[in-house]
Target: Homoserine dehydrogenase
Amino acid sequence: MTGTKDAGRPLGVAVLGMGTVGTEVVRVLRDHADDLRSRVGAPLVLRGVAVRDISKDRGLPAELLTTDASALVARDDVDLVVEVMGGIDPARKLIGDALNAGKSVVTANKALLADYTGELAAAAEGSRADLYFEAAVAGAIPVVRPLIQSLSGDRVNKVVGIVNGTTNFILSAMDETGAAYDDVLAEATALGYAEADPTADVEGYDAAAKAAILASLAFHTRVTAADVYREGISKITAEDLETASAVGCTVKLLAICERVSAGPGEPTLEEGGKDRVSVRVYPALIPRKHPLASVNGAFNAVVVEADNAGRLMFYGQGAGGAPTASAVLGDLVMAARNKFYGGRAPGESVYAELPIAPIGDTPTRYHVNLQVEDRPGVLAAVADTFAQHGVSISTVRQQGHGDGARLVVVTHHAVESSLADTVAVLADMESVTAVTSVLRLEGTEE
Amino acid sequence: MTGTKDAGRPLGVAVLGMGTVGTEVVRVLRDHADDLRSRVGAPLVLRGVAVRDISKDRGLPAELLTTDASALVARDDVDLVVEVMGGIDPARKLIGDALNAGKSVVTANKALLADYTGELAAAAEGSRADLYFEAAVAGAIPVVRPLIQSLSGDRVNKVVGIVNGTTNFILSAMDETGAAYDDVLAEATALGYAEADPTADVEGYDAAAKAAILASLAFHTRVTAADVYREGISKITAEDLETASAVGCTVKLLAICERVSAGPGEPTLEEGGKDRVSVRVYPALIPRKHPLASVNGAFNAVVVEADNAGRLMFYGQGAGGAPTASAVLGDLVMAARNKFYGGRAPGESVYAELPIAPIGDTPTRYHVNLQVEDRPGVLAAVADTFAQHGVSISTVRQQGHGDGARLVVVTHHAVESSLADTVAVLADMESVTAVTSVLRLEGTEE
Model:
């Protein structure tokens, strides 16, 4: 790589955390210093890296390593802080301290941002520093910046993403091989695609944090993880994938951020009221021809629908050291340019303050799998139960005979509460042996 | 939509041109003023629209329309200029005047940018104004901003895009229906997907301008339209699509921007030399399983490959009034925010100054379609001709008999000049009735 020789005063960089992402960020800072200098206008100089264990050999001069992250952030010669340690504490305080001191921060910390963007953005605003976080959602895929900047003149109506690589690896493998959840999870763990404790991924917490961030940006409204309805994939069975396949679908863990109309009895947008925001993470059936259906393995993709832009899709590697580092370094160059040229990143935009729609109000389609007694009239009785609760049926498919008889019901759009009431009654019916699964169906036009 | 009430001094906007894009930009400026004000921090006020014919009813107050674009740009109360008139003159001078006067400019003008970005960027730099142009490439799809900003800490190696909707509509239709080029072009014209004079689209000029812009951004090197090797689709036949299909491919007009190694005898990157940039637009076979193969109709998509980010794909509507307006308005909000908060857009980055690799040096795979005499030894003679010119064959397929006998040869990577020499000899061979087509093959791993 090449670079110009004349440049401004060096900008000092502190890196907090040296896991896979931090290691790659440090490598690029050192190996590609010339290019970075040319792109920023001034040299980026690594002042230090905060690590937990200073004795481990990381191929770095010892004087660059410290266990005192606070002191590193506070150094006078540190202008920019890269936080890739993860977790809420001490990252929250370190980032706050940096921003309050006027140092710009680049972070990949979705859990922190999902709950504390407001606090951190206020600190950045107060000292005119930048807070960048492209790497917090979907790794190297630019989706934060497009939502904040590119779509700032449009009205976003929906964001649907596959934003967790671990669960997508598991569901893709279950779909391809027909294997059971536990077996595929064990394989994912062995391959390093799942953590020893996979809860944050498989129960949807990671995706929910990302959904909160995406919804905040898309709808100019502060959305936190607590606002996100969340179900994980740990109850998905091989049979779910099989029945999905039978109706031309696969199962994906989706993060869905959607603009929905005002609640019952509330003034609509046209009447001077407000739309609401529905944010939810759950495994759902999607048709195989849907663009997200072919996003397999550890890949991520995000579909954005806006009034004027129409449907956009962003696809790429959503995790891993190098891809995440790419996003971090892009933010770092931009933050450094702002330091050098006197610019500012766009601040938090939460003016719209749209209310959150409860999951019970959110209409979706459902795919209900029932084990039933194999005798005449069962289908009619089941259909009648749906009708009594105002849930309109799109298709019913009867499969198998005798003890293995099953009904697979696909509904039109229904609200969660009506469907829940329907399922409660179905479960009590004598002719219904079991409600095997209830999954949502997304990505159909209906 | 909702908006806050307190805001800064109004920012004046001039819109140059009121075609499909300008009309949509003006509509949003007027209909969504509250949202835009909340996002910018200050009201955006439309000062005027420059049009050619002032007598046409455009649903706007007469005092907003003018035929004097120069005077509109020069108004003291105009802070931001949106150029959506297209063409080189007078757009070039109007944008230059605006930038020289410190007014930020948002433009969708790919032809102008492909040749004059240097001049315009210098004007912007001189007055510390912004020049934004997301809408110039791939309509609503954010690709300019991701290349400039998100990937500014990465090394881009390749950009491959379907960036012209007209030609993609034509090739998609030929692929689906088996129809001839002229028939599909006539249909595209009737449907409004092709202009009365389709030359700029079908001969690849539009895609070449976009390729020049993408290459400039990807490689931090000034690339103009003249640097782009260009072939259009007007010679593509129904038979080309058919033989492509027979080898599991379709045909797409691709804009390819690629980092290639130093020329023969020149120092390599490792020896202190420089990589080169190959920029080319041509119809090429791509495997149906390649992500770009399923981008059909008027849609656009751009694939970016970078060292750390890996392969990213951006997909959406690449043309049309509303999608292009979405990109223009996103830029406008960013330019206006910079005016309000005192920020700056990233300026032109051309420090790398990589040389352009001539097309003759650029290795690609080829798909050569020959009409041959149906007698023993022809295949061997043809294969020998390829071998004599150092072009390695991947597969040969013999089709038909008698007068209709054909050979379809797919090569491994070969440089253009070797292939051209091969084809010249083939054309002179007695047993070769005709070289029916020579198309490149892209998107294979080989």
Notes: Residues 321-341 of chain B form the longest helix (21 residues). Confidence is low (pLDDT under 50) at residues 1-5 of chain B.
